[in-house]
Amino acid sequence: MTTHAETEARRPGGHRWWGLLGFGLAVTVAAAIGGLGVAGTAAEYNSLRQPAWAPPSSVFGPVWTVLYAMVAVAGWLAWQRAGFNRALWLYAAQLVLNAIWTPLFFGAGRYGLAFADIVVLWVLIGATIAGFWRIKRAAAWLMAPYWVWVTYAAALNLAVWTMNR
Predict the structure, then answer these.
(1) Which one, of 4, 118, 22, lies nearest residue 75 by Cα?
(2) How much is the pTM?
């Protein structure tokens, strides 16, 4: 049985590319919310006690730009294959938690609450990857570097929280 998304993706001039724009927009909104949460916080971040393996604040922008592009393409690929299904709901939920983390950590300085958020985010990314694996493996693989980075960010969040109590 062919889904509507699959039919549109195969049809010349279909909504295929508009879908990519929509996923790009959704990820951009999540990134923008996060960007608002870090505006002018580089000095604050640098003033925190951090583990030796913490990156400079200048690393986050380029890394997140690449990861967000991969996350957008991953969602789009899964959507093309299966339409908006359970895996895409998980995808949307993890984007929301991603957007919330930065204002919690940087804007509010709530490192413990940010850690709780990132743990749930990590679980949702894993569930999204599992769902995408069943739909389109390329989408799952595109999410994998994001999961690795969030794993690192969670460890960093925990370290900063414990070192700055």
Answers:
(1) 22
(2) 0.87
